[in-house]
Amino acid sequence: NKQTNKQTNKQTMNHVNPAATQGWVKSEDPKTGRAFYANHITRTTQWDPPEDWIEEPPAHQAPPSMGNNNNDSDDLPDGWEVMHDPTTGRPFYIDHKTKITTWEKPTSSPTSFRGMTTTSSSSRSDIYGQSTSMPSYSASDYYQDDYGSGGYAYPEYSSTSHRSTSWTNANDDLSDSMPSLEFTVEKVADSLRLSCAGCGSEFSFSKRRHHCRLCGDVFCDICSAHRVQLPLEGPEFEKPVRVCDSCNVDVERGNFFSMRRFLTPLTLFDVENGDDAPKEGVASVTNVNAALSALTSEMDSFVESSSSFNEKVTIPAQFLVECLAKFVRFRSTSDRGVRALASLLALANMAGNVEFAHCVYQEGSSLLDSVLDILERSGTKRKTFFVQEQAARVLYYITEPPVIKSVLELERKSYSNEVSEFGTVDSLDVHRALRDVLDHTTSSSSPALQRWAAASIRNLIIEDQRRACLAANDAAMHAGMGTATDNTYESVLPQLVSTGGVMLLTSLLGADDSDTRAHATAGLSAIISATRAIDASLAALSEVTGTPPPRDKKDVAIIRSIVTSGGCGSSLSQLLLSADNSVAGMGCTFAHSLVSPLLTSPSGSTMIHKGDDPINVSNDGACREAAIGLMSGSCLTALLSMVKSRELGGRTTRPIELRSLAMEILAASLLAIGHMGRAIEDESINHGSAPWKGQVKRIIAKLNSDNVVHLALSILESSQSLQESKDSPAGRIRESAAIIISSLSMCSVEAVTALQNRHSLSILLMAANEMGNRTSVMRRDWAPRCLGVLEAAGFVLRHTWRQDISWGGGDKHELLDLILEAIDAGAVHTASKFLSLAGDSNLPEKAFGEAKLKAACCFLLGAMFGMVLCDPTAIGMQRLYDAVDADAFSTMDNNNSWDHGPTSVITSTIAVLKSSSVQARECVMTGSGNGAIMELSEAALLAVGSMCGGAPISGGRTYVVSAVDLPTVQNDKGGYTARKRDACVTACEALVGLRDSPLPTMLIGGMGEETVFAALRLIVGITKYATLPQHGQLAQSGIMVPITDMLKSSLTNGDLYKFSSSLVLLRFCGPHVTASGGAGLKSIRDSIRVATNVLTLPGDPRATEAQLQNQRLLRMQCVQLLESLSSNASLWNAIAQDALPSLSEFLLREYNNLQSIQNISYLFCALLNKS
């Protein structure tokens, strides 16, 4: 009945099907139900319909569905439509908006971009079954694994998907340059087989030859004892026929067309004598090429269903790869051989089988060099490009990170065995391969070759990273043992800048083809990551060997080359704006690699000091340059659109992982913009960076116009209920929002005003308490998560503190409300909690983060105590000290320390000042810069200065410290003078009681220009509120010389604050200098001359009334200084010689000023009495 049905079907098809007259019939695989086509004349089988085949569909039959019985068009996103393949009836889906097609049914709900693949822009299969699919990547994570000694972290990327095809037009497909060849199974001549192809037994009179009816090879009876009914036409196949053991394995699985039939000519061909091979027959070059062509078509047909790989490919991997390898090496068959090898590796990759790639390495360098030889062929013919495309595919598949990892695992497990006969991963010449694929990235004549070459670059870069890091680890291990290493591998990455490789890849970001852009992006990301990993390994090697590490990081030149070549421009923004989350994820990964050190490295969070060049000198300068590039173009708009969810006004909601990555890019970039903007505002940036000043200012204006600070605050506020005990994308988003707020408030008055208007202090301080001091995974554990929000809160208060706003004006209640908001939000308790943390000096990066955290707390407290000093109502001061006392007793309750009494936040801040000042002085003396310690020292000085009643800071250089600032009942309502005096006594003991007081170093600017003002303000506060013993301690601490020098210099440059502060300090401390004071006594005598000179200076007729008033105040202070110094007998001669004549002249000039006459006459008489 079966045979009758076949004949009936054949007769029916003959009437309507021209291909049937040539012997073609259509059958069905009984195991899978899949249709195939067989030619009973040539004994050829194939999955695709033969040429001239006419398919007659059943009448009134709907296209078959590959899924369930539900309607395929249900639940499709907007713009999507389901269609059916006219040949197979299989449904596929098309997006009319983006021109994307896919076999997989799209869903309306967003999915994570990690693990997603690039969706195809079109779908087709050529008549030869050639897959034009291109690999796609997802954003990469890292897993830890050890390879040999030293331990090496190998980057893990998601597996490549090949279910989608990607091409732009018909010109991309060059497969027609190598048309398929017709292959027919022929019986092997007896003369070619002297022994059984199965068991190897020699044939004799008693051991007869038998042919397998499937593969045509010769076997003995034992190896071909199976009888099978084959679905082929012809009298021979009307009954069961003989098949060999190998083919029977496939037959039992329902595969009646075993791939082994192609191997018969391949195994019989003698490559060594290939030039002398017969022109015709089974073992001829022509038949071998035909077999390779048919084998390739067979494997390509499996692409539609990768699940059939293990069922169809039953030939051992080592045997199949070894068989193909020899034809890749042989010039006459290399074209077909490399194409077959590429198809095999692609099919294995789809099925997740890495064994075939293992076998490629086992063939050693001869096969790998042959593949590279193909890539290095010259010529412009289409066939040449097509063959090189296949070689690039082979290179890509054998260098995928999962493949390399598995091969290395096998090598490690096989060390105890003899494996020298096999090649290893090191058989591949990475330098040569990378040069070859870089050359082909410019191949505009073959977009497919260009894509595969660009895709291979990332894999080769990762392998170069592995080898270079392993070489450094081996060298470190051998250096520790005192032996020499034979691993001298040198990375190719340093050459990529000088040879233009980085610039070339950057130019591909603007390529017309989307896949090429994506692969170029992945390659650039890999280059940057690999360079940093290699630098870290070399730094570890330098530490072991005792040699100084390289000063300049290698990634600096790479990032600068990318930025210069336009890598941060519109090309990148197009990737970020892609509707495909995987493409947008690659763009984010690339942008993140450009600026991530600004977050992960403590140096990226260090303040820019006067004279520093943030762009051209520091290793972080290249990252800052990249941040400017990202924020000054369309990338800023793209990133903002990615982080906005629908709840925050966004059009679409991206996956949370993608939004997290975009937020980190914004945080890192704005951190750089914030520091540079602050330095521009403080006039700290060196003139060499002048070209960037305008860009930074425009970026800040753009950020303000886009309301970025409102967006970040909304993100921070909307996610307050999230649990952040573990690292999560949501936690990273929130922490990034805090950094963005801190960065903008650092450099933008508009941002600070916006935060004040939204009463953000409570939000920020609440977030700080929720985050706690848990370390930030996003910032590589060096910084606490709460650092950003605490810095932001401090910047808001410091900005208000610095403004010259009168408490008696209309803003009195607004400023008081701001202080009360901070107190009610728990600012004192939060700062006290973090200031009491014990530092870990054994971990430099941890110590840096703790210093930054304590500096943020000190800035916060300094602003609060400084603001209440000017509060005429004393309400703010009362509430602040109440909060200090409440926190002290709360801490005492928690620590059960009633025996030792309460420890207030004031005491903790002074302790921080003492320790940080000592460390800062050590850094200055040893020349080891530590920006966090310097910043903490400045912050602690400001905070303690406010606690000790230091003068306001809003007036800047024009503010004159006078007798009005001394403690009186009028300006110290509430009776808090004693609290300030206690703070002054404690601070004086902490700073002056040290063996080497850091105060002189601070005053001369040794710890930075910023600390001069802060130290001067603190000392003035101590002299105002402390008693005579503290004045004497200050006089003996060595500050008299720098104070006198400051008096002279400030008179020259017109700094009234420093000049008047110096007069106050000399007035209270000068009398305590003894006759044996040495340089201190000499400096006091110099100050007498300066004061007398001020008394005799002529007035400026053009001066304003305010300036005249300041001049009168300063002259009055000079007289007060001279009167105070007259109590020191060691200074009588200097006063008599220098001061008395000037005082007489001044007295005569001020005769008309009755008030001045009364004051000066009194002081003059007192001075004469003492002298």
What does this structure look like?
Helix content is about 55%, strand content about 5%. The chain has about 1150 residues and is mainly alpha-helical. Strands 1-2-3 form a 3-stranded antiparallel sheet. A hairpin with a 4-residue loop joins strand 5 and strand 6 (about 100). Mean pLDDT is about 80; it is low at about 1-15, about 55-70, about 110-170, about 805-810, about 895-900 and about 965-970.
Question: Short summary of the structure?
Answer:
This protein is mostly helical and 1171 residues long.
Task: Jot down its keywords.
elongated; 1171 residues; disordered N terminus; single chain; 55% helix; 12 strands; 4% strand; mainly alpha; three-stranded antiparallel sheet
